[in-house]
UniProtKB/TrEMBL annotation:
Belongs to the Glu/Leu/Phe/Val dehydrogenases family. It is found in: Mitochondrion. The active site is at K102 (proton donor). The keyword tRNA-binding does not apply. Keywords: Mitochondrion, NAD, Nucleotide-binding, Oxidoreductase, Transit peptide. The record marks D142 as: Important for catalysis. GO terms for cellular component: mitochondrion. NAD(+) binds at T185, N216. SMART domains: ELFV_dehydrog. The keyword NAD applies. One of its GO terms (molecular function) is nucleotide binding. This is Glutamate dehydrogenase.
Length: 417
């Protein structure tokens, strides 16, 4: 099942639980706008290269649309569509005043030079500058993009619209980025893990963790979990997969990676087969890389007791059913990885206020938002008698439905009178 079908299925199930009107349900599913643009750039060797860029704006009932931009060879319109929809529910779950969007360019960022990436980002921005904006749609980094990418978008956008730092979040600190934004998704994942484990009388310290992906989300989650006394016993990225029963020294691994080393060459662990990572023995499994990695093939072999969906859509619905039957507790993506969008919201607020917060304030507010969302999800699970994924979906969908309903009622009032 592809990402769009899976997300829509979760949405429909939530709509049914909530007893939503079928017309409202249909209108919530259809994206606000889908944009597809051709981006042609001269490569460093003078030849031309063409790429396809996407932006799907899903819903703006609760505020400007918000979502990441990813650079990945497998970016396709269906997946971007699903991720945009997920952002609508995620911003609602997190209770930040945004709608949902997502975008990307089908490219392999690792095969492009820095100047080629800059040209590609600027061309993409030229093509979509009329459709994004501080109060319409605010992009952020995602897989394959980072604060540098956001700086290029901000600069290119500002050529058309004047100085507009709040048009993107995840910017470098010197350009109006927020302290704590870089770590925010990983930190939110850590807070979410803490909240979930506490429900079961457990804590991060004393638990074992397996992490897939060592990029922005995975590496921060690993570091913060390590700081809290959690034992990261296996970890993998595209360059290799490693394990150490006694716990990987995450700060040493960070140092190794920051010096250009690959995971497989790290001395403090042994290399293992990548296919064994997700089914490795552990208390908590954190997929922090791609979507769809847990499926009907590997789900029966998962040994983790808890899965924290740090990546977007890592568990397909078939795997979800299998895991539920096995008694594995899955903390859903639309809550677990919301730390990024929450601190993006703080960054946007700071840009609009022209006032910079201290990092302690950012982290403290993030903690409050993550905890309060967890309590709200738990309350939904109780009132709807459902699992955490449906608890989060019903919470998000209900908030968007209420906002939509209010506006629809008002406009029909204006038309009729
Ligand atoms: N960055 C954010 O703020 C943010 C926020 C919410 C959700 N997410 C989601 O988290 C996930 C990771 O995002 P990121 O920003 O860390 O991206 P990133 O590009 O920084 O890192 C991705 C990591 O995944 C690894 N990876 C890629 N393919 C893999 C494979 N087949 N097997 C194992 N590892 C693989 C890469 O080597 C890298 O370590 C994505 O699903 C993204 O949508 C990110």
């Amino acid at each position: 099942m592809n990402a769009l079908a899976a997300t829509s299925r979760n949405f429909r199930q939530a709509a049914r639980l909530l007893g939503l009107d079928s017309k409202l349900e249909k209108s919530l599913l259809i994206p606000f706008r889908e944009i597809k643009v051709e981006c042609t750039i001269p490569k460093d060797d003078g030849t031309l290269a063409s790429f396809v860029g996407f932006r799907v704006q899903h819903d703006n009932a609760r505020g400007p649309m918000k979502g990441g931009i990813r650079y990945h060879p497998e970016v396709d319109p269906d997946e971007v569509n699903a991720l945009a929809q997920l952002m609508t529910w995620k911003t609602a779950v997190a209770a930040v005043p945004y709608g949902g969007a997502k975008g990307g360019i089908g490219c392999s960022p690792g095969d492009l030079s820095r100047s080629e990436l800059e040209r590609l980002t600027r061309v993409f921005t030229q093509k979509i500058h009329d459709l994004i904006g501080t109060h319409t749609d605010i992009p952020a980094p995602d897989m394959g993009t980072n604060s540098q990418t956001m700086a290029w978008i901000f600069d290119e956008y500002s050529k058309f619209h004047g100085h507009s730092p709040a048009v993107v979040t995840g910017k470098p600190i010197d350009l109006g980025g927020s302290l704590g934004r870089d770590a925010a998704t990983g930190r939110g994942v850590m807070y979410a893990t803490e909240a979930l484990l506490a429900e079961y009388g457990k804590s991060i310290s004393g638990s074992t963790f397996v992490i897939q992906g060592f990029g922005n989300v995975g590496s921060w989650a690993a570091q913060l979990i390590h700081e809290k006394g959690g034992k990261v016993i296996a970890l993998g990225d595209v360059s290799g997969t490693i394990r150490n029963k006694a716990g990987i020294d995450v700060p040493a691994l960070m140092k190794h990676r920051n010096e250009g080393g690959q995971l497989k060459d790290f001395h403090g662990a042994e290399v293992m087969d990548a296919s064994e990572l997700l089914v490795h023995e552990c208390d908590v499994l954190l997929p922090c890389a791609l979507g769809g990695v847990l499926n009907r093939e590997n789900a029966p072999d998962v040994k983790a007791k808890f899965i924290i969906e740090a990546a977007n859509h890592p568990t397909d619905p078939e795997a979800d059913e299998i895991l539920t039957k096995k008694g594995v507790v899955v903390l859903p993506d639309i809550y677990a990885n919301a730390g990024g969008v929450i601190v993006s919201y703080f960054e946007w607020v700071q840009n609009i206020q022209g006032f910079m917060w201290e990092e302690e304030k950012v982290n403290m507010e993030l903690h409050k938002y993550m905890n309060s969302a967890f309590q709200n999800i738990k309350a939904m699970c109780k009132s709807q008698d459902c699992n955490l994924r449906m608890g989060a979906f019903t919470l998000g969908v209900n908030r968007v439905a209420r906002a939509t309903d209010t506006v629809v009622d008002d406009s029909s009032y204006i038309h009729h009178h």
